[in-house]
Amino acid sequence: LCKITDAQMVQAIERYLKQEIVDRNPYVASASLVSAQSLLTHNKGDVVKRWVNEVAQTVEHPSAMVQYHGLCLLYAIKQHDKLAVSKLVQQFVRSSQRTPLATCMLIRLVAKLISDSHAAQNSTSDATRRSMFEFLEACLRHRSDMVVHEAAKAIVDIPEVSPSELQPVVNVLQLFLVQSRTVMRFAAMRLFNKIAHIHPGALTAVNADMEQLLQDSNRSVSTFAITALLRTGTESSLERLLKQIQLFMPELGDEFKTKIVEAIYALCLKYPSKQYALMNFLGAALREEGGYAFKKTIVDTYLTIIGKVPESKEICLSHLCEFIEDCEHTSLSTRVLHVLGEHGPKMPEPGKFIRYIYNRLILENATVRAAAVSALACFASIENEKMRQSVVVLLQQSLADHDDEVRDRASFYVASLGLEPVLASLKEKKPVHDEGPLLAYDQLYQLPCPLQNLEADLLRYVSSPASSAFELSSVSKAAIQTTSRKPATAGAGNGASAVSGITEDAVEDEMAVDDTASDPAEKLLANEGILSLGFTQRPFKSCLPAVDLTEEGTEYEVQCVKHVFAHAVVLEFIVLNTLKDHVLENVVVEVDTEDVDGVGAVKVVPAKLLPFNVTGSAFTVLFCSAPEEEHILGTMTCTMKYTMKEVDPSTGEPDEDGYDDDYQLEDLSIGVGDMISLPAVLPNNFKAAWDAVGDVAELSDSFSLGAHETVAAAVNAVISFLGMSACEGTDRVSDRAREHVLLLTGIVVPNVQAFVRAQFQLQPEGGVALNLLIRSESELVSNLIASCIA
């Protein structure tokens, strides 16, 4: 009846529904409560909200079903009023006379209240959390297993729960492990797995009990036991545990095997000294029967471990070589061959990997053969004459392969690596004269710049006349900016202030000026005056959003976009003429660079004509006096100068005579943030990239950020101020964190990648202490980053 009744007809049956709620028959009362919930769900429940007193009586009903439905309806009525929900929960928490079903519902409401109070982060919420937690702990001693499990689950899911708060849960669930019912053991092990992810140390006392479940008849229970033990076991018991797991691994399904592999990966990072046993376990699993998803998980694990645990590289590569000997998945074979080509030549004995790669040339399909050719070529790119001769011999048959891709790759590598003389000498049986590889290994296997940047520069090079050859070193590593957004206020995001006073909105997202232009440098590179000054390449960075230099609604609206080059900064002043019946001619913006460091010559490119309501660009070019020694930094005053002419309304033509005038603009700043751009590609492994740069230009310094009360606020401020990208998720910080390590990387003009390790620590006397460690290939760049914080 409630489903087919519309909102107007509900009032006609309200009296009957209201009477049925307090009916003695539990089935009638329960049906009425469920019908009322249906009315609320379908937006027909305005009358239901007036039944609060009657519904509250049902919570005292002797029937478990009526109690549960009554509590559900009460919450549905008050769910949009947080204060009312809080009072409702606190009222029922104080009364312990509840059936198990109603208690489970109350536990869920308590868990939601704790989660909401955690988000609020105030003294009232802390008091609420403590009182609610005491109720959950009391429920752990309930006579019903259902209530005990629900309370344990709620405590485990509490945000930032501590090990001491989890201890009562562990003690109660430990009793579940010895229950005869499978569902009890399964429920306990599933919660233990959650605990193992957040606080594995809390489960140390139950490791012995969980080991007993490795042979459980239910495979779900045994799998949960395996994954939990792998996360909580000690280093000394690891090998014994792996032997036990290996006995029944073949009996598990791929889904359960995948979970075990994920746990093994976590152990590899936790116990690097046990990598040999762990890698052998994964190798044995890789050779067993299994589907594509399972094999892919193991291969992904090996590849990730290679990057994060460098000392395990050789054993990982050996297991991957064995895998591709009998691999039926083409995509996995090509990935492994790619990794062998990338890491094999750098190993102490690179020759032992060549046999596995060559086998793929003679036994596999065309896709795998092409990948094998690329991998072999990497071994010919190192300074090893014997190795290069061996590779040439192996590549000979690929030069005559029936597949075009394989043939083309072989021909390309033979030519690009300087192997043609070696090949000719071997064919003629003459002494080999090898001058070494024409391309270095790094140039062969990875580009020195992002692919999208290379594509953009090549398209521009072939579409416009060029007087010199294209240089790969000139391609920027910084991300190409493309989007259009609203402008910022003057000085925002330019890094002109000290970090101690940074606001979180100091640097906005990188945006473009013109809604119709995807490239912010498009107008710059199309201007003949700019091209005549020698600016033919894309700028290192276009600082977006545009900076407002006038207030909205004035006679002229002027914005500025700073285009940063290695040897200059081009200021693009975007001018909108809002004076009707007037035109502006020869518009230029003169800047006073007395307080700006590093400025040499200054050139201007005028906007020749600006009619009413038309936007045009005038350019001012600041050339750096010593690009290799300093950057252009500072604040300058700006004055717009132009010739004003009136327009005849009848003809629309401007007068021949005009007069010169000027208009004072707001000051413009060029800061350190303008010299730093986001990288187009983040490093896969920050530590490896950090070590590769070396400590030649390393710089360290310490600062006190007194303006920030929390570590999270200080982290966000430093990221915004420097305009760098956070690596490996280190930008995510808990609001309660007392210390944190932030990893940053960015590209600094002219095209130097810099890395920053920032360590934050909350000070007892207030504020946040910041320790910076900076590395780059240039001492000038390292000093620039450190000086801007100071």
General description of the model:
This protein has 790 residues and is of the alpha+beta class. 47% of the residues lie in helices and 16% in strands. Strands 4, 5, 7, 9, 10 and 11 form a six-stranded antiparallel sheet that branches. Strands 12, 13, 14, 15, 16 and 17 form a six-stranded antiparallel sheet that branches. A hairpin with a 5-residue loop joins β16 and β17 (768-776). α8 (145-156) runs parallel beside α10. The chain is globular. It starts with 6 loop residues before the first helix and ends with a helix. The model is unreliable at 483-517 (pLDDT under 50).
Quick overview:
This protein has 790 residues and is of the alpha+beta class. The chain is built from 30 helices and 17 strands. The strands form three sheets. Strands 4, 5, 7, 9, 10 and 11 form a six-stranded antiparallel beta sheet that branches.
Q: What is the rounded Rg?
A: 35 Å
Instruction: Count all strands and give the number.
Output: 17
The main sheet comes to: 6 strands, antiparallel
Low-confidence stretches: 483-517
Report the total helices. Answer: 30
Helical residue percent?
40-55%
Mean pLDDT: 80
Which percent band covers the strand fraction?
A: 15-25%
Euclidean distance between termini CA atoms:
73 Å
What class, by secondary structure content? Answer: alpha+beta
